[in-house]
Design goal:
The protein is mainly α and 181 residues long. It has seven helices and no strands. Helix 2 runs antiparallel to helix 4 and helix 3 runs parallel beside helix 4.
C-alpha cells in the first residue's frame, strides 16, 4: 500500500459514523412512565416503613391508621376505574385487615389497570369517562392524591414513634432513581 493510500484509509477509519437523530419526545409515554414512577415511590415507601407503624393507632385515637390510608389510596383508584368503565376491577382492600404485602399487590394491580385507562385516553380523544377536564388532569389528580397520602403516611409514622429512615424520606424524592427501580 502506498503512503498516500494508507493515510486516506486511516482517516476514513477515524471519522465517526453519523449518529441517527434522536426519536421525537413522546409525551404519552412520558406520562405513563411518570405514573409508574409515582407508584414505585408508593412501593418504596411501603418497603421502608417500619412494621410497627402499619397498624399503630393515630395520635388521640382519631383518624386513619397507615393501613387504612393505603387501603384508601387503592380503593379510590377502584372508584375511578369503575367511573371510567374499566373492564375488570381489582379487589378492594379492607382498611382494618389489610397487610403491607396485600396492599403492595393491590396497588400494583390498580396502577396497571389505571395505566390502561390512561393509555387508551392518550391514544384516543384525551378524555377519561367520569373525569373532567382531560387525561392530563386525571394523571395530575392521581399523582397528587398518592403524593398527598405519602406525606400523611410519613408524618403519621413519625407521630406514632416509628419514623421512616431519613434515607427513605429523601429517597422518595429521587424520581431518577425510582424510575429505574
Amino acid at each position: 500500500m502506498t503512503p498516500a493510500r494508507s493515510t486516506a484509509t486511516n482517516a476514513a477509519k477515524k471519522t465517526p459514523a453519523a449518529k441517527a437523530p434522536p426519536a421525537p419526545f413522546d409525551p404519552a409515554a412520558a406520562l405513563l412512565e411518570a405514573f409508574a414512577t409515582s407508584d414505585r415511590i408508593n412501593h418504596y415507601l411501603l418497603a421502608h416503613l417500619p412494621a410497627e407503624a402499619w397498624a399503630a393507632a393515630p395520635p388521640g385515637g382519631k383518624g386513619r391508621t397507615i393501613a387504612a390510608i393505603v387501603a384508601h389510596m387503592h380503593n379510590v383508584r377502584l372508584m375511578w376505574l369503575k367511573a371510567a368503565g374499566a373492564a375488570a376491577l381489582p379487589a378492594p382492600l379492607d382498611r382494618a385487615t389489610v397487610t403491607p404485602a396485600q396492599a403492595a399487590d393491590a396497588l400494583a394491580e390498580s396502577r396497571a389497570a389505571l395505566a390502561d385507562v390512561l393509555a387508551a385516553a392518550l391514544a384516543g380523544d384525551g378524555r377519561v369517562k367520569g373525569f373532567k377536564p382531560d387525561v392530563v388532569g386525571f394523571f395530575g389528580y392521581l399523582v397528587a392524591h398518592d403524593a398527598h397520602h405519602r406525606g400523611q403516611i410519613a408524618m403519621l409514622a413519625r407521630q406514632v414513634g416509628h419514623p421512616l429512615p431519613q434515607s427513605a424520606m429523601f429517597g422518595m424524592w429521587e424520581w431518577g432513581s425510582r424510575g429505574k427501580d
